[in-house]
Amino acid sequence: MPDSLVPIAPSYNGHLHTGPTAPTAILMLNLGGPQTADDVGPYLERMFLDRELIPLPFQERLGRFIARRRTPKIQKKYAQIGGGSPIYYWTQRQGQQMVKWLDQISPETAPHRFYIAFRYADPLTADALHQMKADGVRRAVAFTQYPQWSCSTTGASLNELWREILRLGLRDAFAWSLIDRWPTHPAFIEAMAGKICEGLAQFPPAERDSVLLLFSAHSLPLSVVERGDAYPQEVAATVQAVMQRLDFSHEFLLAYQSEIKPFKWLGPSTEQVIRKLGAQRRRNVLIVPIAFTSDHIETLHEIDIEFAELAREVGIANFKRAPALNDDPRFARALAQIVAEHLRGNRLYSTQYKLRCPGCQNPMCRTLLSPAKDIGCAEGSPAAEGQLSAA
Predict the structure, then answer these.
(1) In 3D, which of 151, 142, 138 has the Cα closest to residue 51?
(2) Which of 103, 175, 188, 247 is the S-S candidate for 372 at Cβ 3.0 to 4.6 Å?
(3) pTM of the model
(4) Residue 361's pLDDT band (boundaries 50, 70, 90)?
(5) 15 domain-assigned
């Protein structure tokens, strides 16, 4: 983690490209986070106004009300972890290492340049698209930084990407393909298993075999899950793959955190699981953030402060967290490997991408504008173009 968090002006790559060959753009999609206390209000407002993330009755009015009401509380939490979210810092670090590895293992598509498109914080999607256009990019890969698909996360980020492309008149500017999920990629699983081993090393050797692994992922509104969202099974697939890599060395559970009351969210709640583990007199628990690829408020505050305090209260003697992936070289190589395999493959997107949720009513979902011609479906075919009109 950086020693201090300071505002970082939008810049997209530490590796500047000055040669004649147009770079291959890797657009890193994520939720983002406020870098300063003043950014918290606008960040929350964007979140709660987004029906694709949190569907609310009277979205405009209620979303603004919830954002205003929560802003002072969330500002205090960010103050306790250094003043702002480190997610931009870590995404920069991950992107820098990723493209360095990519230039080595995929020279046929080099040079590579990463761009960051956050959904609710700077740099926003439009910022990244403007920079890509200025850099002369033609070939682009939209690479979700959520390993497991959800319509509320990856889906919302992609929908915003297509909306902004049309709004800015950039439909023909870039040729696109998608990395829309990677929940069980072997290199990702290897990196996660390594972090769990680091976490287990925090326990006394005599206690290590009795540690329970508590995997924790960000929850989803039940209304999204009941629509048919793939997130629960993809998170479970990640957990199963990680435990298989560890040869099922420890007992494990999966729970979900960060639900917002009074709405109904996917469970079991991580908070409630910790309480029940205390009631069962479990002494040793290692919590493993399984859907987060870097530290942010859910790891640094909710887990490290709130859940750690709760664990002490309920009598869990040793409550530790597995380190986040952050700028671990194993994870940077995993990101590069995922992109390299995609660029060498013959698919514009995963097999599951075109499968709409049974309850989906969003005409924007499962779109792909201006498909790349070097892989997959031919541009202009119904399978490639998806559901979006040019309007």
Answers:
(1) 151
(2) 175
(3) 0.90
(4) confident
(5) no
